[in-house]
Amino acid sequence: IILAGIFLGYICPFTLIARPTVASCYLQRLLVGLSAAICYSALVTKTNRIARILAGSKKKICTRKPRFMSAWAQVVIAFILISLQLSLEVTLIVLEPPEPIKSHPSIREVFLICNTSNMGVVAPLGYNGLLIMSCTYYAFKTRNVPANFNEAKYIA
Predict the structure, then answer these.
(1) CA dist., res. 86 & res. 33, Å (int)
(2) pLDDT for 32-73, tens place per residue?
(3) Residue 70 burial (CB count, 10 A)
(4) Most Cβ neighbours (<10 Å): which of 11, 42, 91, 122?
(5) pLDDT, tens digit (0-9, with 9 covering 90-100), for 105-148
(6) Chain-centre distance of CA 7, in angstroms?
(7) DSSP string of 71-121?
(8) What is the tally of structural domains in the chain?
(9) Which domain holds residue 15?
(10) Contact at 8 Å (CB) between 69 and 52?
């Protein structure tokens, strides 16, 4: 999942530097937030799982197995987090459809840019900020872990 997010992240600069068209404006709005959300969702899910495993191992008596610990459940949780970002971006695109417009910063200059409001940029990046904060929380919570889970130390 993380590799798919990284791949989309590497596609983003091409949409940002390309001549603005309707398609490139849509891709800009979708890919920038979605590529980061894919990576962060997988990290949040992984660090959450490690935190829950360690919290369960600290209890003296384990009465039942924690829920949603299988690999399949982790993938489903990651896709739910990704779908929240995707639905947020699609909603913003429906409310404010992107299209190329001419910008006149001075009398002699005309730029072709995509019309993007502040809300269209801040809301998807704000969701990514929430994912980053929750990932940092779980990474901090699991910083003193056994050696076989030690990669969580470097996330925060």
Answers:
(1) 9
(2) 999 999 999 999 998 888 888 777 666 655 566 667 778 899
(3) 11
(4) 42
(5) 888 888 888 888 889 889 999 999 999 999 999 888 877 766 66
(6) 13
(7) HHHHHHHHHHHHHHHHHHHHHHHHHS---EEEE-SSSS--EEEE---HHHH
(8) 1
(9) 2-59+67-154
(10) yes
pTM of the model: 0.82
Q: Residue 121 — φ and ψ, nearest 5°?
A: -100, -45
* Eight-state DSSP code of residue 151: G
Q: Which long-range contacts (CB under 8 A, 24 or more apart) does 87-96 make?
A: 88/33, 88/123, 88/124, 88/127, 89/29, 89/30, 89/33, 89/34, 89/124, 92/29, 92/119, 92/120, 92/123, 92/124, 93/26, 93/29, 93/30, 93/120, 96/120
**What is the DSSP code (8-state) at residue 155?**
T
60-69: list long-range contacts, CB under 8 Å, 24+ apart: none
CB 20 within 8 A of CB 115: no
CA-based R_g, the chain, Å: 20
